[in-house]
Amino acid sequence: MKKISILSLDGGGIRGIIPGVILTYIEKQLQKQDNSKQKIGDYFDFIAGTSTGGILACAYLMPNPDEQAKAHYSAEQAVQLYLQEGHDIFKENILDKIINPWSLVTEKYSAGTLEKNFKELFGHTLLSEFIKPCLITSYDITSRNAHFFTSADAKTNDIENFKVIDVARSTSAAPTYFEPARVQSVTGQIFNLIDGGVFANNPALCAYAEVRKLPFSRLLNDPKKPDAPSAKDMLILSIGTGTVKKPYHFNDLKNAGEIKWIEPIIDILMSGNSETVDYQLKQIYGTLSRKDEKDYYRLEPPLHEALSDMDNATGVNVEHLRQAGLLFVEKNQPLLDEIVKKILANQ
């Protein structure tokens, strides 16, 4: 039996450029060794994403293009979208800075540009049309529970089926940055959703739980793929959006109130979740045989000169993020080539 290859992508706003650059290298190596023009979404059996990772997942899993959308995206095409459109999405006008300092009154950015881009990228495509199974995270602020967009459920239940533009909008509705997303399923049921990063900035463990129940031999039309796979049947590649180790000092926060805690608590929640999920998966894989335990990979690149702000899309910072991705590829080429070989071995 072949293993189920899983790609998991963290949240992190404009820092999504970093995993995008890394996956561009992986995609080119896959194509070269496979003598193929297939794209990154064709090589994985399952993709999970949160926030910016959820947007990338949507791009990678789009079906062949139609007149409404520009899909099916390669890793290189997807990262170019960030490089070209990031500044317009995270653009705060001068008046907003004056009447809404530190986003105390309303969200920092208008969702209009974001939604316009999603319409151009994804057209009228539905979640059920994705080329592979997926899990994309969000959180329902009305029913107060985690909401997972899964294409396997969308194919069998219209209540779980949504337009891809609404999936992308929901998973990226980061509190204080964008207003919550109000979206409808195909059946017309309304959901009020925010960024899945509030509970699963690293969605790799959510992906593991979802994959455990899926009948992959049927979903992928491949009898060599196991149904309801366990950890030993999975090859997991989990990619972060840059290590954030900004220290917060006791004297700065010992008398802090709600306003002063807003920035650090969001940063700590996201980083803490990503690190915890990595710890949990390492423990799971540590119980396997020596061969199988090496099939979990966590890539967390250093930011180097790039700033950690999720919304810093200045030309200088965008280039620094791209360079951080390229530097990680340069310094970890043998590891990435090892991952490529394992992906191809389980095709």
From TrEMBL:
GO molecular function: monoacylglycerol lipase activity; phospholipase activity
The keyword Protein biosynthesis appears for this protein: no
Motif placement: GXGXXG: 11-16
Keyword Hydrolase listed: yes
Domain of life: Bacteria
Motif stretch (DGA/G): 195-197
SUPFAM superfamilies: FabD/lysophospholipase-like (SSF52151)
Domain PNPLA: 7-208
Biological process annotations from GO: lipid catabolic process
Keywords tagged on the record: Hydrolase, Lipid degradation, Lipid metabolism
PROSITE patterns: PNPLA
Positions annotated as active site in the UniProt record: S51 (nucleophile), D195 (proton acceptor)
Motif interval(s): GXSXG: 49-53
A UniProt-annotated Pfam family: Patatin
PANTHER family the record matches: XYLOSE ISOMERASE
UniProt similarity note: Belongs to the patatin family.
Name assigned to this protein: Patatin
Lineage per the UniProt record: Bacteria, Pseudomonadati, Bacteroidota, Chitinophagia, Chitinophagales
